[in-house]
Amino acid sequence: MHFNLSIAAGLATLALSLTFANDEARPGADSIGDPYYPKLGAGGYDTERYDLALTVDMETGSIDAVATITARALHGLSSFNLDLYGLEVAGIEVNGKAAKFTRDGRELDVVPKKPIREGKEFDVRVAYSGVPTPAPDPSVGGTGVGWMRKDSGIFVSSECIGAASWFPCNDHPRDPALFRFTVTVAKPYVVAANGLLVDEQDHGDTRTFVWEPKAPMAPYLATLGIADFDVVVEEGPGGIPLRTYFAKTLDARERAGFALQTEIVEFLELCFGPYPFASVGAIVADEDLGGALETQTIPVYGRGTYDDGTIAHELAHMWFGDAISANNWKDMWLNEGFASYGSFLWVEYAHGEEAADRDMRQRYRMLRRAKVGPPPDPGVAQVFSARVYERGCWVLHMLRDRVGDEAFFEILQTWVEAKSGKTAQTDEFLAHCEDVSGEDLDDFFAGVLFADVIPEDARFE
Ligand code: TRP
Ligand code: ZN
Prior knowledge:
By secondary structure, this protein is α+β, with helices and mostly antiparallel strands. The protein has a domain at 329-460: Neutral Protease, domain 2. The chain is built from 10 helices and 22 strands. It has helices spanning 7-24, 252-255, 261-272, 308-316, 333-351, 353-369, 390-403, 405-419, 426-437, 442-448; strands at residues 26-27, 45-57, 62-73, 77-83, 88-94, 97-98, 100-104, 107-111, 121-130, 146-149, 153-157, 178-186, 190-193, 196-202, 206-212, 224-227, 230-235, 241-246, 280-284, 300-301, 325-326, 423-424. An 8-stranded mixed β-sheet has the order 6-5-9-3-2-12-15-14, with no helix packed on it. Helix 4 (308-316) packs across helix 5 (333-351), helix 6 packs across helix 7 (390-403) and helix 8 crosses helix 9 (426-437). The longest helix has 19 residues, at 333-351. It is globular, with a radius of gyration of 24 Å. Bound molecules: tryptophan and zinc ion. Residues 294, 313, 317, 336, 339 line the site of zinc ion. Tryptophan binds at residues 140, 145, 157, 159, 289-294, 313-314, 336, 384.
């Protein structure tokens, strides 16, 4: 409303606001702005929910899928962008109306029939199909990340940019959302995914499994495991469901570490505070998956990652990396350094001081000998390097030494409280350490975290 205006001025204002109303809708940014992946993700909207319905043909490896994405427009949107690698898009509807779309590499541009107004919630329904293949990722190399078809079944490990290998998404941890997975597959295959198994329908030759995580998650943390699994269902930590999906060929020795899942989570709760999710478990493949991955509520383990140290690492990620998301991939040490320290704490507790001392001494010598650089901003090719894991872990050990156990665990627990469901970056963690400990830690971090090489420390020589 405009009072006390001359008619002319009033009309001018009206004309101006009409122009703005038209100009308001513009294309959403085609990138979320992560310097390591210039075209990854998108701007102009926030995803709220992914509802993924997939029929998987285990003979051919192909999927027939509909992804319904609910998002909210952050400004008027004349078009917007999603990530999708490979696969064939049959059609897209926005709010129930056919939309135009174009594809260019991993970029899927969608032009809704009518622009979406700022603040409005909208639905995007993408019908797509094909045989998913892993997406190349400069942080990982090799054959890429995401959907993997193996002899025993299908496994999905998407960090950093592989979620787009199996569903259209805003493929960045800065935009977590709720999920539902409705997956249909022929018998005897069984489907595991994140969250709770909320429904299972038997159609005779095929079955449909419906999984639903209760908390938002980053797209790269979404997973499916489809194989003829042995399923072990137990009551887990604090009485939550614990479901472990073992590849049939795994022997008792390979399965043994997973019997410790409840104990590990309960131990980590003493360190980090309450476990952040409503279920827990594991997908354990008898295949080389390039490591284990902290897929939310149900990490995926590949061949050679069945030891309790690795299980503790992946479970520690539930707090650091999953509940708390990285704001940019350059802050990866806030995930990997912390998960590695969680694993170290478990080793200290379960295998004793001597084993823990040996572990830290080895880490110190390696960091000095190989002149391992600072954890923050390691460059995309070193997101999964010793700078991030080993030195990140060392930084926390030194912080504990500097401020003492009480302040150290207070720092970790209040960090989780403050940041769960949010994104985190390095400067925020450093400020948090000073706030909680009441100490000036600038000089400390200048050495341990930022110096080219970690400072000499006679206790570890
Ligand atoms: N984040 C994993 C870990 O817990 C490592 C990892 C990164 C990974 N990308 C992956 C594992 C892709 C398997 C596939 O250390
Ligand atoms: Zn990790």
